[in-house]
């Protein structure tokens, strides 16, 4: 029997022996909760998950709350007895702001807690994984050193604390079913991490003009890239993803040069859209709805549009432009980005190009500390489009990647070319059936539009070194090369820490993997640090020029 089947059978056995979470009731809740708070919880008598599922039976209705968070508790628990956290005497329910739970070290050393990093601010921690952004809430139940039962409710922001309270209210009312696999159980401790999506004013309260969903996190967290309800307006985005909403401001990260916003059943409410990762010199703003766009400000790498309806940011009529490409700038180990990467970044920022392609391997192994160092250095004066690499798309790095860069498969058009980015590292250097179907569709789109496809992935279909094989799975490589040949596609790849440009089996492509990672060849064999200029000609031809950079 393999390990996955054994684990599955074990889980089923626990379910059948323990029964349904929340199915047992206590006929004397007040007595039981008072007793548990004063004498502690006998965790051994509860199946995993049952402590959280029974929280309202184990604790009385008194909440000790950080200053300014009282209304959150009253919103979700109108009959609660709310007291200042300063009156807390060592047992009961603590509802703490991220500042208080962190500074007081209330959850220090626990498997679920709130931490803080200089760059990210308050972050959530769950059993070895870190989670960034303001929408995470935590619940932790344990026995104190004195033997008293304690429940701590907190989060990475006010919205996160509200998400945790919303979750607890749902458990008590039966509207939320506990996912026992999301519960962290460790001796006299149970905790859970939850995420809210849709609290657009980040006040911690699910209001009528929002659509809020709650999610219990195990490893990978869900993302809602393209849709929100903002002040009652049903907003859908294409060509980019919604990174954050704060009251009437919608922050969108562009995944190309054609970003569209559609407002369904428009109520005429004016919202501000901040679209970053775009080159204002290559786009214009349009709207088919007269008077919808109130203002559009173009500058830096962003466009700010104030609108009460639909609009689009579309490519200008451009041709004969330059793309700058590089990749594999992760260090050989540790957290710091290689020094040569900073030189390459600065050199690219000094170039006159439309946009930048990063072929992946951004950090060493995906830890939050490595990402912190990368994002400190992520300073560009042009949009950067990333093909995800195997090193960052690992562990907690998967969630961080999606927060900053969104989906890993996307495409856009500019000046006679269609750029198609795909994740070829998450499935053993193979593409899934769904990805092949999507790729073929994008190639067909390019053909219908009269555009030349440019396929961008991390791992190439071919390793040009004579004695190595550091590429796509052979069967997928063969399939990819056939498709690229059929549609006259050009390729941009990384993964192999060299520079190489040539044609293999009738397909032209460049490997640019020398932006800081340890080199894989001698200088005369392409083993030098570099980035690449790609001159995208109006006639569909592409000129490639490597730019060497001294370490």
Explain what you see:
- By secondary structure, this protein is an alpha/beta fold.
- It contains twelve helices and 32 strands.
- Strands 1, 2, 3, 7, 8, 9, 10 and 11 form an eight-stranded mixed sheet that branches.
- The longest helix is centred in the last third of the chain and has 17 residues, at 433-449.
- 44% of the residues are buried.
Strand-helix topology:
Layout: H1 3-18, H2 29-39, H3 50-53, H4 55-58, E1 62-65, H5 70-76, E2 81-84, E3 92-95, H6 98-103, E4 112-117, E5 121-126, E6 129-131, E7 136-143, E8 149-155, H7 158-173, E9 184-185, E10 189-197, E11 213-216, E12 227-230, E13 233-238, E14 240-246, E15 249-254, E16 259-264, E17 271-276, E18 283-286, E19 293-299, E20 302-307, E21 311-315, E22 321-326, H8 339-349, E23 355-358, H9 368-377, E24 384-386, H10 397-405, E25 410-414, E26 417-421, H11 433-449, E27 452-456, H12 474-486, E28 490-493, E29 499-504, E30 507-512, E31 530-536, E32 542-548
Parallel strand pairs: 1-2, 1-3, 3-8, 15-17, 22-23, 23-24, 26-27, 27-28, 28-30
Antiparallel strand pairs: 4-5, 5-6, 7-8, 7-10, 9-10, 10-11, 12-13, 13-16, 14-15, 16-21, 17-20, 18-21, 19-20, 22-31, 25-26, 29-30, 31-32
Provide key terms for this protein:
about 550 residues; eight-stranded mixed β-sheet; six-stranded mixed β-sheet; about 25% helix; about 30% strand
Summarize the structure.
The chain is α/β, with parallel strands linked by helices and 551 residues long. It has 12 helices and 32 strands.
The percentage of residues in β strands lies in: 25-35%
Largest sheet: 8 strands, mixed
Mean pLDDT: 93
The first-to-last residue Cα distance is 51 Å
Structural class: alpha/beta
- Oligomer designation: single chain
- Tell me roughly what share of residues is in helical segments: 10-25%
What is Rg? 26 Å
**Low-confidence region ranges:** 1-31
Number of strands: 32
Shape: globular
* Number of H/I helices: 12
């Amino acid at each position: 029997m393999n390990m996955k089947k054994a684990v599955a059978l074990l889980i089923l056995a626990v379910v059948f022996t323990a029964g349904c979470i929340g199915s047992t009731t206590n006929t004397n809740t007040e007595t039981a909760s008072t007793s548990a708070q004063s004498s502690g919880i006998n965790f051994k008598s509860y199946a995993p998950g049952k402590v959280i599922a029974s929280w309202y039976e184990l604790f009385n209705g008194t909440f000790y709350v950080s200053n300014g968070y009282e209304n959150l508790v009253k919103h979700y628990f109108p009959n609660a007895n709310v007291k200042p956290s300063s009156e807390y005497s060592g047992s009961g329910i603590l509802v703490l702001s991220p500042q208080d739970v962190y500074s007081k070290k209330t959850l220090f050393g626990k498997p679920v807690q709130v931490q803080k990093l200089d760059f990210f601010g308050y972050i959530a921690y769950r059993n070895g994984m870190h989670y960034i952004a303001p929408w995470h809430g935590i619940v932790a139940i344990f026995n104190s050193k004195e033997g008293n039962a304690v429940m701590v409710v907190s989060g990475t922001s006010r919205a996160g604390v509200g998400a945790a309270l919303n979750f607890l209210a749902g458990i008590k009312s039966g509207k939320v079913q506990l996912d026992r696999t999301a519960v962290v159980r460790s001796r006299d401790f149970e905790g859970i991490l939850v995420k809210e999506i849709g609290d657009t004013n980040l006040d911690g309260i699910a209001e009528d003009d929002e659509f809020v969903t709650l999610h219990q996190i195990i490893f990978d967290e869900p993302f809602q890239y393209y849709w929100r309800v903002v002040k009652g307006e049903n907003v859908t985005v294409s060509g980019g993803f919604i990174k954050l909403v704060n009251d009437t401001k919608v922050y969108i990260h562009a995944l190309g040069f054609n970003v569209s916003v559609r407002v369904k059943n428009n109520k005429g409410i004016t919202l501000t859209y901040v679209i970053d990762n775009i080159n204002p010199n290559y786009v214009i703003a349009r709207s088919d709805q007269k008077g919808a766009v109130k203002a559009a400000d173009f500058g830096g790498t962003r466009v700010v549009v104030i609108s009460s309806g639909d609009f689009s940011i579309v490519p200008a009529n451009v041709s004969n432009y330059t793309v700058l490409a590089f990749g594999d700038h992760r260090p050989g180990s540790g957290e710091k980005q290689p020094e040569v990467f900073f030189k390459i970044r600065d050199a690219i920022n000094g170039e006159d190009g439309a946009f930048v392609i990063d072929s992946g391997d951004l950090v060493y192994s995906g830890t939050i500390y490595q990402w912190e160092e990368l994002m400190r250095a992520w300073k560009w004066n042009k949009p950067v489009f990333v093909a995800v690499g195997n090193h960052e798309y690992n562990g907690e790095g998967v969630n961080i990647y999606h927060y900053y860069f969104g989906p890993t498969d996307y495409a856009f058009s500019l000046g006679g070319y269609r750029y198609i980015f795909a994740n070829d590292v998450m499935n053993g250097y193979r593409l899934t059936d769904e990805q092949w179907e999507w790729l073929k569709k994008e190639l067909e789109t390019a053909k219908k539009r009269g555009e030349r496809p440019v396929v961008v992935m991390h791992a190439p279909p071919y390793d040009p070194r004579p004695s190595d094989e550091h590429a796509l799975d052979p069967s997928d490589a063969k399939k990819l090369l056939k498709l690229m040949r059929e549609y006259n596609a050009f390729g941009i790849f990384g993964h192999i820490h060299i520079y190489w440009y040539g044609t293999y089996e009738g397909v032209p492509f460049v490997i640019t993997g020398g932006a800081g990672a340890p080199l894989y060849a001698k200088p005369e064999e392409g083993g030098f640090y570099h980035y690449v200029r790609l001159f995208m000609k109006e006639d569909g031809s592409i000129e490639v020029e490597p730019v060497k950079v001294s370490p």
